[in-house]
Amino acid sequence: MDAVGGPPSCRGGPVGRNDAAVRTAIRDLVAVGTLDAGAATAVWEDVLRLPQWDDAPVWLHGDLLPGNLLTSDGRLSAVIGFGTFGVGDPAADTMAAWTVFDAGTREAFRAAAGVNEATWGGGGAGGRCASG
Question: Mind giving me the DSSP string for the chain?
């Protein structure tokens, strides 16, 4: 289905628009002792340097988290929760690699998704919806 003219997803946009919020989150997590500020900031700055999606928008779910993925007999049977459905950068839907899969299965997901290095590196950092 052609995504041109589709409603923009609240995720899947330019990652730079979240710079202030991410830096605030890093600062807050450092304050409670749960994060290495230098490492987190370095990773964030690496993401900011990635090429931004400049191709035609694609349809994305935008919220591929465990609670929206139903399974039966150990296999995916349904995807629910389409409140963030829209068009944008496909990196938003790669967040499932880190929220659903472990290190042993993440590469299989990546291969099946067929995404390029910039899309993989973006990992869904491109947007934040009003609900969180």
Answer: ---TTPPBPSSSS-GGGGHHHHHHHHHHHHHTT---HHHHHHHHHHHHHSPPP-S--EEE-S---GGGEEEETTEEEEE---TT-EEE-GGGGGGHHHHT--HHHHHHHHHHHT--HHHHHHTTTT---TT-
Q: What is the pLDDT along the chain (132 residues), one digit of tens a residue?
A: 888 889 988 887 788 888 999 999 999 999 998 889 999 999 999 989 988 888 888 899 989 999 999 999 989 999 998 888 999 888 888 888 988 999 889 999 999 988 888 788 765 445 556 544
Domain assignments of the chain as residue spans, ordered by start: 15-122
